[in-house]
C-alpha cells in the first residue's frame, strides 16, 4: 500500500464530509485519530478536559508499526528532526557496566521491519500531531460528564459549555475513560507488583553514555532503562522498582521522590550514578493494567488506545497501539458503504480487526521486555545478554505489523 493509496480519501467514504465524529481526549491516540479522520474527509471535533494540550516530559518508544503510520500522515520530516534513531540497544551489568549484548537498531531495524524505530519525547510527538488538527477542531477545557446514544447519533454533556452532537463518539480518554465505563462497565486494575520512576536528564551531564544508544541495566530487584530523545539533547530514564505502596492511586502524572530512585540504584555502575546525580524531578507511575475487554463498541460509540487496552510498558507499545487503532478506525469508517447501519458495521469491523491483536500485545507485555533480565549468574551461568534475543523476538512480529495493509487485504 502506497502513501497515496492510504490517504487518497476517495469515495468508498460513507456520508462524505457530512459525517460528524467526536473524539474524547486529545492525547496521542485522540489527536492521531482526529488527523486520520480529517484526512479521509470526516468532520471531527476533539474534546479535551485540560485547558491546554500537554504531555509529560518523559519519552516513549515509537516502533516501526507506529512510525510507518505517522510517516504516511506526513510527519517523517518532523520525526527525523526531533526524534532519535538509536544505533543500538545495549544490555549492561548493573554493577560494573559490562556490555553483555548489543542489538543493532537504526538502519538495520528499519530494513527488517519496514519503517524506523524512534525514541521521542512525548510532548514533541503531541506537538507534531497537533499540527495536523486545525484549531477549530480542538475544544479545550471540556470535561465530559456523560453521553446518550440513540438511533440518530450521540449527544455529549460537559461540565462547562454546551452539549455537542455527533454521528460517532470515539473514547480516547485514557485509562480512567468515561466512555469505557459506559460501554464495557467498570474494570478492576490488575497490579504488576512494580512501579516506574521516570523522567529526563540532560546528556551534557552524562559523559560516560553515547547519545545514540538505548540502555538496559538489570539489578537484583530493579531495572533501569534509558534512551535518548530531543535530538540527543536529553536522556529519558525509567527505573522499574518493586511496588512499595499498594494503595497508591493509579496516576500517569504523580510525582515521585528522587531519594527512592537513588536508594534503589545505590552501588550501581558509574554511568547509572551519573544519571541519578542529574535527576532533579521524577514522576511515579504505578504499573497496573486491566483484563482485556470483551467488547469495545456499541452502534455509534467505540474505544481507542488506553481506554480500550491499557497495557504495561514492557513492550513499549502503548502509544503505538493507539496510533494503529486510529489508522484502523479511520479506514473502517471510510470504507463502509453508506446505509442505515453503516456506522455500526464500521465499528464492528474495527473491533473485529483490532481487539484480538491488541489483546495479544497487552497480555504479552505482562511478562516480557526487561522483565526477562536477571542479575548475572556465576561464571558459566546464563547471562542477561543471552535473553536479549528472546526480547527482540517478542516484539519483532509487532514491529512488522502494518494495520492498514491488514485491513486492505481483510475480508471482514
UniProtKB/TrEMBL annotation:
<dbReference type="InterPro" id="IPR050493">
    <property type="entry name" value="FAD-dep_Monooxygenase_BioMet"/>
</dbReference>
<feature type="domain" description="FAD-binding">
    <location>
        <begin position="21"/>
        <end position="361"/>
    </location>
</feature>
<keyword id="KW-0560">Oxidoreductase</keyword>
<dbReference type="InterPro" id="IPR036188">
    <property type="entry name" value="FAD/NAD-bd_sf"/>
</dbReference>
<keyword id="KW-1133">Transmembrane helix</keyword>
<keyword id="KW-0472">Membrane</keyword>
<feature type="transmembrane region" description="Helical">
    <location>
        <begin position="20"/>
        <end position="38"/>
    </location>
</feature>
<feature type="region of interest" description="Disordered">
    <location>
        <begin position="363"/>
        <end position="386"/>
    </location>
</feature>
<keyword id="KW-0274">FAD</keyword>
<dbReference type="InterPro" id="IPR002938">
    <property type="entry name" value="FAD-bd"/>
</dbReference>
<dbReference type="Pfam" id="PF01494">
    <property type="entry name" value="FAD_binding_3"/>
</dbReference>
<keyword id="KW-0285">Flavoprotein</keyword>
<dbReference type="GO" id="GO:0004497">
    <property type="term" value="F:monooxygenase activity"/>
</dbReference>
<protein>
    <submittedName>
        <fullName>FAD-dependent monooxygenase</fullName>
    </submittedName>
</protein>
<keyword id="KW-0812">Transmembrane</keyword>
<keyword id="KW-0503">Monooxygenase</keyword>
